[in-house]
Amino acid sequence: MTGPAGVLDALRQAAGGHAEQAGDGDAVDRVPARFVAAPGSTAEAAAVVRIAAAEGLAVVARGAGTKLGWGTPPRRLDLIVDTRRLDRIVEHAAGDLVVIAQAGVPLAALGERLAGDRQRLAVDEVVPGTTIGGMLGTGVTGPRRLQAGAVRDLVLGVTMVRADGVVAKAGGKVVKNVAGYDLAKLVTGAYGTLGLVTEAAFRLHPVPPAAAYVSVRVPDAAGAYQAVQQALHAQFVPAAIELDRPEAGGPVEVAVLVEGTEAGVAARAEQAVGTLGDGAARIDRPDWWGALPAGSDRSVLVKATTELTGTGRLLEGIDRAAAAAGTTAAVRGSGGVGVLHAALPGTDPAAVAAFVKALRDAAPAWQGSVVVLAAPPPVRSEVDSWGPVSGLDLMRRVKEQFDPDALLAPGRFVGGI
Amino acid sequence: MAGLSELASRLRAELGAAKVIDDRQELRTYECDGLAHYKVVPGLVVLAETTADVAAVVRACNDAGVPFVARGSGTGLSGGALPHADGVLVVTSRMRTILDVDRDGQRAVVEPGVINLHVTRAAAPSGYYYAPDPSSQQVCSIGGNVAENSGGAHCLKYGFTTNHVLGVEFVEPSGEVVEIGGKAPDAPGYDLLGTIVGSEGTLGIATRVTVRLTRAPESVRTLLAGFDGTDAAGQAVSAIIGAGVIPAAVEMMDALAIEAAEAAVHCGYPDGAGAVLIVELDGPASEVDAQFAQVRELCEKAGAFEIRIAADDTERALFWKGRKSAFAAVGRISPDYIVQDGVIPRTALPEVLRAIADLSSESGVRVANVFHAGDGNLHPLVLFDDAVPGQAERAEEVSGAILDLCLEHGGSITGEHGVGSDKAKHMPRMFTADDLDTMQLVRCAFDPDGLSNPGKVFPTPRLCGEVPGRHRGAHPLVEAGLAEQF
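^ inputs. structure came back:
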């Protein structure tokens, strides 16, 4: 191919005419791209990736672009593969509780389609606008994970384009299947570094006819831990146990979701009120439910995990780290799962770096990890976004096998993968 | 062979003589797993007691270029733990310490040789249990469950082993010991755990496993319904799922399977039933009561002529006894049989069962059907008499044709027994060469020399030195328009 014009021509032909020069808006974390191609099928996606492979173009996949700032910035970038034309719901086998959807389908659109059959993909739309591809790439989950599992637990199979343009499938479209390696889990949460997922099959759940929220306000981390523990060990089977703490060191709201039949939910919500103790009450869905902590001045998003006995210590650890770093953190997340998110101001990179370091140093006490999901570029360059990674050597070998020339989202993932 | 005797000497020196077996008679004890018609006497057996033992064996094998195979209780039904004649069988059944039962954290940490049911026993006093419950749960090991991603009757609602394993300490095929996952969720990096669970021992050996403990339900209610035939029972299952009920378990047996179970364990299923359904609901009492009434009604509507409700745990155990003993029970009505394990989309059940019946009558080979009806996992038992020339071959053909039916309906060649030695040859019927090649990229990352349980899962090994990217060099646009080739 002769020069950039030749590459663009080739991309256009490969993607059914849908390729163009990249503009300023196509940069990923300020790293500019050269081309954008929008394939409309797996075959077109494969043709696009083969051109990238032949030309040595570094590729980042983009759906709605809602989480492009997550992960470290790409080391280099040539081609954005825009997945939004991959927008078909390929098959909804309602009687089998299975759906197959292309990567560019917005999670909300899928939800609307499934709702007609009183079914759902039990993944909360934590980041509004998210596509199936973005959900898979980041593995982001919300409150319902407690009962329904994470994205990796719900994905049954994937069709992906490898870095060399070869199309491969793994898994299937039945809920039970142990034939071959479960590559669908491997690519979930891999930030697009192993392949370009074009299509995926998911296990669905029926939408329960009734739901209720019960919440309690407690003064501190110890109270929050106690409330979460009581809900976890009770037998009313919460669908979700969430907590919200707008200010480090401040009071915490612990809220529980109960879903089921009308009669069952009424009785279980009563049990939940009793379990959560003084001041607990049935409420409408809290306005913070299922959303990441945020705020106009809070541009840094940190994900912190813990063993289930460590939720209180993690909350206190965040307090201490924020105080020591001279910053403040709003915390929200799935107390019943052990995943919390903290939002911090991004104006002082050194303070964020100090916070992350302090929290990471303390995290082994609750067996947790600390990952900086989103941050403005000046902060990114100050912090180690991923932190220590167990098994990194194996992960590098996996990457080396799947993408020996490091063309797929280079530098976006752990250890510079 | 010389290589193995040197290896045996090294291992005796490193581990102590008591852990190393090379006596031919003793080695024979390990010649097969639960799939007994595949037999290979291992070159050497090591009875590992610690992670260090496993790592030492694997390192020694790696140094000598000798293959190794891990084995737990040896109950697998696909020949996944079939030994290698020139290799080492690493037996983990002595590693059976439950290291930690963390009720508040809803986790247990166990060694790989720990028996599945023992985890539940250890957790029960604090009101918890380990959810995955393969029928062999009284004898099968957690290490084997991890290798096979074992299922069980209750995985319809609660998921499989892969949904309940949070971490492993893992010996890589190089002998390196690595921690993957743990008590906290979402360790940063690739989901190696999701790849390891169900990889059938081809990526290395788990030496410690962190599992989720599940809160015991407040209420469990079980009914047994008798139907004239499998069509009506299948309609009941569709109606239950269609009503938005996800039972803890939905199990079906057909007339021949019932006959076998009656002969073996006298389970007293409804007289004259052409199919029975066991439906179990669990959860908060208020939910279970509401849904149980609904399930009962749906079974009646679908034509159940008799419905029994378990009054207590004893009666529930009796309902399950017939089902859980079904595989072995078939021995009462046939000298030999093949246990098949295939999956179909649940809604294809009536059609596939009719096709199996046709296959059976055309070939004269009897097939008893036992299955996890809720998730479409079939276990046809193909009956034959090995003493009659030609019967075994005909049974094999019918068994293979059943897998074809599963694939034609968009299903899988295995739902829970694994690929192992038995079904590696069928993998190309479910996956393309490119699909299999892509899976083997993972194999090459973990085990470039192919020493960990070679010959299982994949019909042909990948040479890990091969440069991926067979399409490179050809002009991409030549192929750009050829959508149908994908």
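Chain B touches chain A through 105 residues (CB under 8 Å). Confidence is low (pLDDT under 50) at residues 468-486 of chain B.
thumbs up if we can close this ticket
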